[in-house]
Design a protein that fits this description.
13% strand, 3-stranded parallel beta sheet, alpha/beta
Length: 223
Amino acid sequence: MKKTEPLIDEGLRVSLVETAFFDGDLEIPHVDAPEEIVIPKGMVPFSQREQDREHKNFVCFYENDVNFREILTNTEDYVDDLKRFPGIVTPDCSLYIDAPLVVQLIGIYLNRAVGYYLKKQGLYVIPNIRWGDERTYTTEIFREEVAFLGVDKHSIVSIGTYGQIKSAESKRIFREGLIAMLDTLEPKVVLVYGAMPVSIFGGLDGRTRFIQYPDWISSKKKK
């Protein structure tokens, strides 16, 4: 069994982005938009992908980080496995709003690094957009909204509300970040994994085409 390497030993997986272009002052790896927009039939979390026996769903990472650690540390080993599916949504690394800014930035970097590498290997890749506190989706600290670097405008992106909007503060930050994302990236399509409460999404229908997907647990219960 292959030993999991510590992230820091390999410079946070710099080998994945040796040929990448980088965006912004922080040099976030750029994930090119797909040539055509493909709407997933459904989404299956990485740890549950074997339950999708017909391989019809996109693989996503809207689950506890520990469940997809291997895709970050040993990305190369999963290329053929993931090619069984129509595409993937890039890893949803946790950006805790009470975490140090550098920790939030690392999550954004790893999201794009893995996405860039898998796209280079021929997978259909949809960028997952996740922001942390206000410093990641405003220009309070940096000259650009770092949470949106490395992603093309006017294409398709994905976001996850599952487990992210439990408190009043998290709901406020989610809505503010969502509006900032729409302003910056102007996406044609936004996939939403989880609930779409009016308190967050109200009044934004005309900004893009939202497509909602139930979280995996809820979808299995309905079936």
